[in-house]
Design a protein that fits this description.
This protein is mainly alpha-helical and 259 residues long. 59% of the residues lie in helices and 4% in strands. It has 2 domains: 83 residues, Tyrosine recombinase, N-terminal domain (DNA polymerase, domain 1), CATH 1.10.150.130; 158 residues, hpI Integrase, Chain A (Orthogonal Bundle). The chain contains 13 helices and 3 strands. α1 packs antiparallel against α2. The longest helix is centred in the N-terminal third of the chain and has 20 residues.
């Protein structure tokens, strides 16, 4: 296979606004497949998928081949469109840590500095990734508009995330006498260690909890996707799949009340 095809695939993916990291992982897997297989065929692809005992790794490999196959199909590269049909392994669904209000209140009781309190409020309010929280500058906070500007997200595109009144208050308190520049002055790893120190869940669990709470509160999936910086609705489904029935009933109940 011509490696130029992979580079064009990478560029088209990024130009469409999708996550840079995702396509890089896909290409890494595709290269591994090419290096391990004497022929680029469905049979060889299935053998490669089965070369690992991990259902999670099998699924990720299958997703990489399927994504590339879909791109080939769109671009008329017929000899590789079979990749669209590569089987996806069924990945066991394990409960994912999800922050709830009691975790939030417990964390607020455990913090001892204005900086740590602001970090907890921002995680609870904005659904930021740990690296995004670390990268916030004082000038990225818009108190009038009620949002923070995430200048570089996982997709490589900027976005805005909502700032709750309690988060706004915590950040205002932090900014009194603040020298400017980095808002928290914490690296991504420092945030991880802070959460561990106060016995709080991981930043990813806070992001998941923010998504779940937003849907329960009536926020649309479209708005949630925009605020979270997700390039597709697949991540909304992944984070909140267990809530779909509950959210649907709540939406119907609200519609009946308004009607």
């Amino acid at each position: 296979m011509d490696t130029q095809l992979l580079e064009e695939f990478r560029l088209d993916w990024r130009l469409s606004g999708r996550a840079h990291r995702t396509v890089d992982m896909y290409i890494n897997d595709i290269v591994k497949f090419l290096d391990s297989s004497p022929q680029v065929t469905m049979t060889e692809a299935k053998a490669w998928l089965m070369s690992t005992d991990s259902p999670t790794v099998r699924r990720k490999r299958g997703q990489a081949l399927r994504a590339f196959g879909s791109w080939c199909k769109q671009n008329g590269i017929e000899e590789l469109t079979w990749m669209c049909s590569v089987p996806l392994a069924i990945e066991p669904v394990n409960p994912q840590p999800t922050v709830c209000e009691s975790d939030y209140l417990t964390a607020l009781k455990a913090v001892t500095t204005n900086r740590d309190r602001a970090a907890i409020e921002l995680l609870w309010s904005c659904g930021l990734r740990r690296g995004e929280l670390s990268a916030l500058n004082a000038g990225d906070v818009d108190f009038v508009g009620g949002f923070v500007v995430v200048r570089k997200s996982k997709t490589g595109q900027p976005r805005i995330a909502p700032l709750s009144p309690s988060a706004s208050q915590a950040v205002r308190k932090l900014l009194r006498g603040h020298p400017g520049g980095a808002l928290l002055g914490m690296s991504s790893n420092a945030i991880r260690l802070m959460l561990h120190r106060i016995g709080a869940p991981s930043a990813h669990a806070w992001r998941r909890g923010w998504a779940v709470r937003s849907l329960r509160s009536g926020v649309s999936e479209t708005s949630l996707k925009a605020a979270a910086g997700w390039s597709s609705g697949a991540m909304v489904s992944r984070y909140t799949n267990a809530l779909r029935d509950e959210v649907a009933i709540m939406e119907f109940q609200r519609a009946w009340i308004l009607g």
